[in-house]
Amino acid sequence: MLDPNLLAAWIGFWSLVKTKQRMAAIHAASYADFRARLERLLAEAGARDTRPAAIALTATVDGLWLELCLDPTTFGPGEAAGIIARALGAWLPEET
Predict the structure, then answer these.
(1) Which domains are assigned to the chain?
(2) How far apart (Å, rounded) are the C-alpha atoms in residues 92 and 61?
(3) Residue 30 burial (CB < 10 Å; 0-12/13-18/19+)?
(4) Are 65 and 76 in contact (CB under 8 A)?
């Protein structure tokens, strides 16, 4: 996932999303499908506010992935995984 060529492909896709209606539709459908699946997984794990949780987690993962691709010296994949774990923990019920 941290391949610079993959980042270049995503940047190209994102630019097309803003200028081409078909690409925007593909992006919207893909994001909606991913978010719906994540919402189901969060619900199964006991989260209540699954829609905002799915949006927040997706945005966090995307941001970390982007920063790791742009400058992998600022933090590493292990630290990114820890950040996601903490974010996920904020949306899940505490274990008893």
Answers:
(1) 4-91 (1.10.357.10)
(2) 17
(3) exposed
(4) no
Nearest to 58 by CA among 78, 43, 85, 38: 38
With contact defined as beta carbons under 8 Å apart, do 92 and 46 qualify?
yes
Q: One-letter amino acid identity for 4?
A: P
- Per the CB < 8 A criterion, the answer to whether 51 and 59 are in contact is no
Q: What does pTM read for this prediction?
A: 0.82
Find out whether 65 and 81 touch, Cβ atoms under 8 Å: no
* pLDDT per residue rounded down to tens, the chain (96 residues): 677 778 888 889 999 999 999 999 999 999 999 999 999 999 999 998 999 999 999 999 999 999 998 888 999 999 999 999 999 999 999 875
Rounded (10°) CA dihedral 72, 78, 5, 19: -90
